[in-house]
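Meet our chain:
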Amino acid sequence: MELLPAIRKSIITFALLPALLYAGIPPTLQSDASQRMTKDIMDRVYITPKRIVTKYAGCKNNLIKDEHYLLERGNGQSEMNRKKCCIMTSTETEKASLLLDFGSELHGGLKLVMGSSSRREPSLVRIRFGESVGEANSTTSNSEWKVGFSTDDHAKRDIIMEIPRDGMIEIGNTGFRFVRLDLLQNNATISLKEISAILRYRDIPYLGSFECNDQRLNKIWITGAYTVHLNMQEFLWDGIKRDRVVWLGDMHPELMTISRVFGYNEVIPNSLDLACKQFPLPNWMNGMSAYSLWYLINQYEWYHQTGDIDFLKKHSDYISGLIHLINEKVDDAGNETLAPARFLDWPSSGNKAGVEAGYRALIVWAMQDAHQLSLKLGNTSDAQLCLDIINRMKKKILPHNNLKQAASLMAIAGLMDPQQACDEVVSVGGGKGFSTFYGYYMLEALAKAGEYEKAIDIINTFWGAMLDLGATTFWEDFNLDWIPNAAPIDEPVPAGKKDIHGDFGAYCYPGFRHSLCHGWSSGPTTWLSDHVLGVKIVDVERKQISIEPHLGKLEWAKGTYPTPWGVIEVSHEKKADGKIATKVKLPKGVKQI
């Protein structure tokens, strides 16, 4: 299927790199060195600090001068006149330090433009990156993960380094919003002309959009989109500070968001290709059977949104092999032995019975999608095998054990009536018991039950609370029980208050190890586009879409939705009689059914 030309034009695929790589390369490098080059597909921009959060200028307040110059936009060039510089000084007993806020979560590093120092030798400094003020001030503990400490085992965030007297130096590659700089030597003075964050990102258009009369929902939608955008590196990561690899389960909410915001992007097929190379059958994706199930769900959703049959055919053998592997591990009575370890998401880990029920529902969902994939590939025997597995699994349906994750998956897979799932557990307590990853599937269960107003209220309460606490991207995990007496991430924690970042977290994310930019948390972005705007691709092959808005208490909503044939524009307005007036602009050849 031919993709929208404007989308294709904005993409540099790996397949095009050989032709583009050497354009403009100096002739002296084009013969030998060019054969060892890899083009950086990411873009870079430099960002000036938005504010100075704190400074330590000594007991006499004279160790730092003219720090306001660091808030002015620079040109990246060191100058001999040494004017308009921030001066930082240390003595025998006191060391100057600055804590800077760049305004929003970023992925990249730091650029220092120097304006001389009192030493002819390089000066020693400590640079700490933080997703929160608390993390930028924290101590690192890599040998033991614990509350109150940070780690840099995935991306170095606590760095002691020498900086030059003049010129420029760049350092760091991590996720951060805040940077703290400390002088470490006695009796030293440095002049800083500029400190800039280096944002490393994909320069791609936001083709999808969402706007309504609730500004909080608008901010939630764009925050989810930005969270995933930062994780769209060479491959699709789940977090820019930690776990910077392709995780197939974490990838599903990100794939959903990417297709609603950016449309087609090669980061998805490239990541699926990489996963198959890294985990050839009979290995499980990421060493986890659940994530091989998510691989099948990802493949179905990507085809459903793009119609890329060539990519699907490329994975035909892997899909078929995985179906047969799963079939071997499900007996006639519905007992399955895929793997001894079960995983849905971290917050559900303590409810073993609920996880077991949810895991079985995930198998059924994956086999339903694999059935459709097999039909698209013309593999009728595999399609029938998927139905056989589903029928066997349905012989043994386990109770959800009051686990919202499990009940949601059971509703999605058709193993439980959605209204019953919501009444018994998903809706109970509102956002209590929601999680950032599986929260999306809880919202989907609410939609299946027709509980759109409740879902919108929970989006506002749960994801909105992170915004209230200073978030500019959504987090790896969040719990409404953390909120009482907690300070936000963008200020030093007052005495007697809890640090929302450093004092909470569990499992693999205690304390500051907790990622504050995790793509799996972007579910509301997809949900608002799918259910409030109401746009859905029904049949990608026939260019059929449906539009069924659910405004709840909203007065109006409008936005755009990318498809393989162009961008759909839609607006909805609630009239006095409660009916919704809709205006739609469709790309040529697209049919609304």
Notes: The longest strand covers residues 97-117. The first helix runs from residue 5 to 9. Residues 45-201 form a domain with the Jelly Rolls fold (CATH 2.60.120.260). The chain has a mean pLDDT of 93.
